[in-house]
Amino acid sequence: MKAVVLYRNGPPDVFVHEERPDPVPGIGEVLVRVGAVGVPYHDIVERNGTLRPGQGLPKIMGNEIAGTVVARGPGTGRLSPGDRVCAAGFHVCGQCRFCRTGRETACPERRVVSGGYAELAAIPEAALVPIPDNVDFASACMLGSSTAVALGALRDRARLRLGETLLVTGASGGVGLSLVQIGKLLGARVIGVTRSAGKAEAIREAGADEVVVMDGTGDFSRAVRDLTGGNGVDVVGDSVGSRVFWPAFRSLDSYGRYLVIGQLSGERVELNPAHILFKSAEILGVTNARRDQLVDTVDLVAKGTIRPRIAAVLGLADIAKAHAMVEAGTMIGRVVLDPELAIRWAGFRLN
Hints:
By secondary structure, this protein is of the alpha/beta class. The protein contains 11 helices and 17 strands.
């Protein structure tokens, strides 16, 4: 099979294109022909070494996977060859106290799904969710690590309620656009934050009531408070992290909930606990989505209630270009790789 391998951390052109033996599914695994794999910013910080430099290398990256089951390993049976599936971001034991109490993201046996930068990937069956025929692979691949994460964050973690106000940082990214759409679906007033005025219209199209474009200072909190009558917002959905933490936290109203969903840099934040105390705020960490949240997300996408946005679809040969595009931050939505681009996407028009 064709694969893209990371042997060392470095710039976008560090990947090596190789022919590798087809993977053999092990116990509990199925073999999936990759129909599409997303390129989130998480892949950028893994490739450049910001995230766990040098660990686990060499490896075939890519955990936002959708495709077709082609073979089953021992101990499987829920899925069959020909089934169309998408992957959760990780797989778990299913037996520990966390898995049995709806907290599977804290499972001590939790392992990240990987191997999507290739034509074939062996994936634990328990990490896969069936998708209907009307959900294409490019849309499905990003659901487990972006849209389902946004759903779980807002609906289940922050308990966002009808009539509340939600602030979304990084609102033009895969997670950000999902937060905007789901926030509106849950009945919130949504304010999106972006660095680029050129992305504002796309954020509004996703459902944002207002969009704040960051100025040179990077402090958007005054603009947010002006939009909320000086009060601030009830919930912050932060998919950026330390670079926007303080203006986002200053935008939070008393008793607000701050969702930490992403961390795109290695920068730290110095925090006096009194800031949390005096605001009576909650800071809530969000890692991945549970499989039940992914199932709910697939259903919403199949019904057309949520529409994932695809920025571009490229082939595996364009892996360096894909990473450069995502790292530049100029795209709206998710950049997707398709190992069979020339066949499946003939005539496909990019967004």
